[in-house]
Amino acid sequence: MGNTSFILASIGVFLVVILLLVIILLVAKKYLSPSGNVNIEINGDKTINVPQGSSLMTTLNENGIFLPSACGGKASCGQCKVQVLEGGGEILDSEKPHFTRKQIKDHWRLGCQCKVKGDLKIKVPESVMGVKEWECEVISNKNVSSFIKEFKVALPPGEHM
């Protein structure tokens, strides 16, 4: 009976320790993770109220503003450039190769690397503001090389690029 009691006591202690760790993680998440909504002012004329925590690029995409991004948010193409006038924090090392010193001084950031943690004032190129989203038919999808793909689609009737 001694071994059985020891095993049950060990299991009980293990469960209590795991339960305490879960409680600590939940409390830490509540106080350390961003929550709630913030305002993003875009080009001085449009303001959106969004939940915080995602990247600026993802947040803008969810609100119909599509920043170009060939790399899918991995900071390798440098196409999702935005000027963060207020908020946004410091530029990350992964962003620096995509900007000149003047651009860094003028608060340019990659939308895929800038996290929405508080209110922001940003400028995006006017060309981005008119970008449309289409449902297209895939005509062909060929691998040209390891990292290059030829992807042809048919636009909806009446649309053109």
UniProtKB/TrEMBL annotation:
The keyword Transmembrane belongs to this UniProt entry's keyword annotation: yes
Gene3D superfamilies referenced in this protein's UniProt entry, alphabetically: 3.10.20.30, Translation factors (2.40.30.10)
What InterPro entries does the database record attribute to this sequence? 2Fe-2S_ferredoxin-like_sf, 2Fe-2S_ferredoxin-type, Beta-grasp_dom_sf
Residues forming the 2Fe-2S ferredoxin-type domain are 36-128
Segments traversing the membrane: 6-28
One annotated GO molecular function: iron-sulfur cluster binding
Q: Which UniProt keywords apply?
A: FAD, Flavoprotein, Membrane, Transmembrane, Transmembrane helix
A Pfam family it matches: Fer2
Q: Does the keyword Transmembrane helix apply?
A: yes
PANTHER family in the cross-refs: NA(+)-TRANSLOCATING NADH-QUINONE REDUCTASE SUBUNIT, NAD(P)H-FLAVIN REDUCTASE
* Name of the featured protein: Na(+)-translocating NADH-quinone reductase subunit F
